[in-house]
């Protein structure tokens, strides 16, 4: 009986007249698409602030370290987990940590995934990562995860510090999708969009930040 009903439904679907798919209506241009570099940085920074993200801007990497030092003092950081991506590696955080009395751990320091997991969840007071993209229209950070950009560093500690070169800020999401997923067969194993601290509305419909991930996000812009 079930097979007969299924066959009947499928036959009706196949016999239905084929209608042309209407063209997608033209979308109004996003304001961020017409913005210059400094306007994009300003838009990104303002949207980040709206998402309760603290924003610092440094002209170069040495100044970014100064900003990071001030953040570490304000947050009372003594032990952090850092990635080894192309942005963070330029800061030489192990040397910075020794100078400032802060233990800087990286995923490479651990012999197995279990000891790393325990450290990033239970010991690290903050996770420090670079970012591959920043989306001006929504204050979203895009991170491609790989061996130098371990996923838990941005997700497990209660504080996430993201270092974002300003030349990586793009106007809209679509620009990121084109770059990350534009070439067939060359997709990253993991990619995340981060828009401020984690947030949920599961409890009585009230929005609550910091339920499933970092309770606080700080962005240091470089450039």
How would you characterize the overall build of this protein?
This protein has about 220 residues and is of the alpha/beta class. The chain has helices spanning about 1-15, 35-50, 60-75, 95-100, 115-120, 150-155, 175-180; strands at about 55-60, 80, 105, 125-130, 135, 140-145, 160-165, 170, 190-195, 200, 210, 215-220. The strands form three sheets. Strands 1-12-7-4-2-3 form a six-stranded parallel beta sheet. The model has no long low-confidence stretch (mean pLDDT about 90).
User: Which strand order does the major sheet show?
Assistant: 1-12-7-4-2-3
**Helix-strand sequence:** HHEHEHEHEEEHEEHEEEE
Strand content: 15-25%
Q: What characterizes the major β-sheet?
A: 6 strands, parallel
Helix content: 25-40%
Number of strands: 12
Overall morphology: globular
Number of helices: 7
End-to-end separation:
68 Å
Q: Rg from C-alpha positions?
A: 22 Å
Low-confidence stretches: none
Structural class of the secondary structure composition? alpha/beta
Instruction: Let me know the average pLDDT.
Output: 91
How are the SSEs ordered, and which strands pair?
Blueprint: H1 2-15, H2 37-50, E1 54-58, H3 61-75, E2 79-82, H4 93-100, E3 103-105, H5 113-122, E4 126-130, E5 133-135, E6 140-145, H6 152-155, E7 159-165, E8 169-170, H7 173-181, E9 190-194, E10 199-200, E11 208-209, E12 216-222
Parallel strand pairs: 1-12, 2-3, 2-4, 4-7, 5-8, 7-12
Antiparallel strand pairs: 5-6, 6-9, 10-11
